[in-house]
Design goal:
This protein is an alpha+beta fold. About 15% of the residues lie in helices and about 30% in strands. A hairpin with a 2-residue loop joins strand 3 and strand 4. It is elongated, with a radius of gyration of 27 Å.
């Protein structure tokens, strides 16, 4: 009886260990590069400038197409040029709030995979804003790939996103010849 139990146990183990189901679908290819955002593997961080005019005609909101479209995991940061001193630009991450005698106004933005908008929001009539606040403003748009290696490489430190220069350095972006887009 003992031999039969041992024999059945061995047969059972062989049957159980040799069971295979159908092969599943193939997975997605991974990225081969170290960082991925330096131009390898199609992941590229990018920077460009826009100069919108905010008017009553456009509702104090200007929308720009993203071409090519960005991926759903990508991020978009927008910085306002707030000062230039001795040829050095100072950038501030949106949203930026400003205080006026009438109340507060702020530059803000939103984006999707195919477009982004920059807008002025205020708690008073925006037509009362100074012309310099509404016209000729310069903004830098930074597109950051969603899979930038930050979460997979624990030795990589997140950049200080409000600091434009830290972001440019972290993502190896050459901003020496930034293109303007309409």
């Amino acid at each position: 009886m003992r031999r039969i139990s041992t024999f059945l146990a061995i047969i059972g183990m062989i049957v159980i260990s040799s069971c295979e189901g159908p092969q599943g679908p193939p997975g997605f290819d991974g990225f081969d590069g170290q960082d991925g955002f330096d131009g390898q593997d199609g992941l590229i961080a990018e920077v460009f400038e826009v100069e919108p005019d905010f008017t009553t005609a456009n509702g104090y909101k200007v929308t720009f197409a993203l071409s090519p479209r960005i991926y759903s995991g990508d991020n978009l940061l927008i910085y306002e040029l707030i000062n230039t001193n001795a040829g050095i630009d100072t950038w501030a991450l949106l949203p930026q709030v400003y205080y006026f005698p009438n109340g507060t106004a702020k530059y803000n933005y939103n984006f999707s995979y195919k477009q982004f908008s920059i807008l002025i929001d205020a708690n008073f009539d925006r037509a009362q804003l100074p012309t310099s606040f509404r016209l000729g403003k310069i903004f830098r748009v930074v597109i950051i790939p969603g899979d930038d290696g930050i979460n997979t490489n624990k030795s990589v430190i997140n950049p200080d996103y409000p600091d434009y220069n830290a972001v440019i350095k972290r993502y190896n972006i050459d901003d020496s010849n930034v293109k303007k887009r309409n």
